[in-house]
């Protein structure tokens, strides 16, 4: 449809698209370079501290922590302090001290492997039982 228009209109359309993308880019650059954005990213520390306190020091509760430098740590919480917490990974044998302000995201598994296995087996047995009952009732 755009090719059927005269060349001047296509050039005008392309120019307006470039101006729109340039203004959008400048808006994002201006927003992310402001001090208020940097303060918002550091404001997550109380949330992180509350989430870590909620999980608690438990060796059976595995979690994954994504840091602001995009590195990931897996393990469990070994110690909680006022300014930091310690995450230990028994699989690799590493222990890492992490400040609350370094954390970008906390991921915890919703279901344990044992619960997942039990759900899968119950679904399979339920469906299998329904199929067998259907086969037996038709004969």
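^ structure tokens above, recovered residues below v
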């Amino acid at each position: 449809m755009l090719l059927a228009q005269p060349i001047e209109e296509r050039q005008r359309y392309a120019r307006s698209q470039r101006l729109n993308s340039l203004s959008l880019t400048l808006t994002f650059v201006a927003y992310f370079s402001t001090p208020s954005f940097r303060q918002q990213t550091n404001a997550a520390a109380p949330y992180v501290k509350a989430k870590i306190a909620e999980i608690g020091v438990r060796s059976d509760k595995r979690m994954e922590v994504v840091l602001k430098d995009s590195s990931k740590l897996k393990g469990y919480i070994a110690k909680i302090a006022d300014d930091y917490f310690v995450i230990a990974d028994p699989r690799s044998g590493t222990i890492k001290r992490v400040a609350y302000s370094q954390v970008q995201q906390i991921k915890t598994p919703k279901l344990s492997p044992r619960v997942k296995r039990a759900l899968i087996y119950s679904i399979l047995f339920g469906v299998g039982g329904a199929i067998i009952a259907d086969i037996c009732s038709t004969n």
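Helices lie at 7-32, 35-42, 45-55, 113-138.
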